Each structure stands twice: as C-alpha cells, then as structure tokens.
Amino acid sequence: MHYTSFKGEKMKLTKKYLLAVLLLSLINCDLLSKNKILTSHLLNTLDNNKKEALVTFKNLLQDKSHLEYLKSEQAKMLTNFTEDDGIEQPHLQEKLKGTLSSEYNENQLNQLFSELGYEKTKQFLDNLHKMLQAIKDGTLRAFHDSSSFKDYNTTLEAKKAEALSSVKKELYVQYYFYINDLQTADDFFVLTRNHLMIFKNNL
Q1: What does pTM read for this prediction?
Q2: Better-scored residue on pLDDT, 50 or 92
C-alpha cells in the first residue's frame, strides 16, 4: 500500500512537472510569435534607408571579427566591477567571468525590437543610417580634425574605414551585452544612441 501510494504521488508530481513544462513552452511560443508579428509589421513600415541600416546591423552581428573586441570590453567591465557591485549583483559578476554567448539568433533580435517598441527601434535605425551615410559621404567633421585620428596624414578612405569599424564594434558589443543580460534593452538604446551621435552636429 505504501509503495502504491508513493508511486501515485510520484505520478502526480510528474504530471505537474510535464504540465509546467508544456505551459512554459506555450508561453515561449506565444512570445516568439508575437515578436515575429511585431518585427514583420515593423519591417513593413520602414523606409528604404532604415531597411538598409537593418541589413547592416544584422550582418555586423554575425561578423566574428568583432569577437575579440567583445572579450576586451567584457574584461574592462569586470575590472571596473567593484566589490559593492558584486554583493548587489553576484549573478552579473559570474557572467562577466564566463564566456559570453555571441551566436546570432533572429529570435533574440526580434525580442530586442519588441522590448524597444516601434518608435525606439525606428529611431535606432534612423540614427544608424545617418551615421553610415555620413561616413560613406566623408562629411563627418571628425574626418577633418587631426585630433580625432592617430595619424594626421591618414587618408580619407582610411578614416572612413576606421570610423565604420568603430561603429560596428560598438554595436556588436552593446547587442551581445544585452543578449547576455548584462544590460537592458533601454541600456542598449541609450548607449548606442550616444555612440552614434558622437558627431551629431555633422549629421
């Protein structure tokens, strides 16, 4: 009798566990579906400039040449992590000590856009487009300011390449910091906006 009772309780717990897993799966599927719908609707409302910026953003997120920069920025963040920070956010410190995920996932990008919402996502893509266009046209004032580059005699084309690389690396880092829960979607928006608008007077 005791064994039968124990077996019955075990089956009940198993059923509850399976129901919980099923419920979580349904919730995740629902969220993924909503994110896809939102992203699809967003794409339909973008002009060509923002669509081009989005393509550039997706491509750079899959470019592993920026991985070393991500690792160096991770190390800097860990170095700047104070003892008090560790006490308040121990999980964050542990993540910084480990290997960050840097695999591109379309669903995670959709999740970022979902959290940002239409307006912030459009603003982000608009800022990115303007910066990319200014670099391409060579119209940034920084290109004509020797203090902005290490080599005074650097050619305009070399300056363009350096500026483009800087933008891409920064976006790569901030995105994967978000993916690894080192910062929020709003943090991503603010930090990338600030970086993209370094030369805002020239846009």
Answers
A1: 0.78
A2: 50
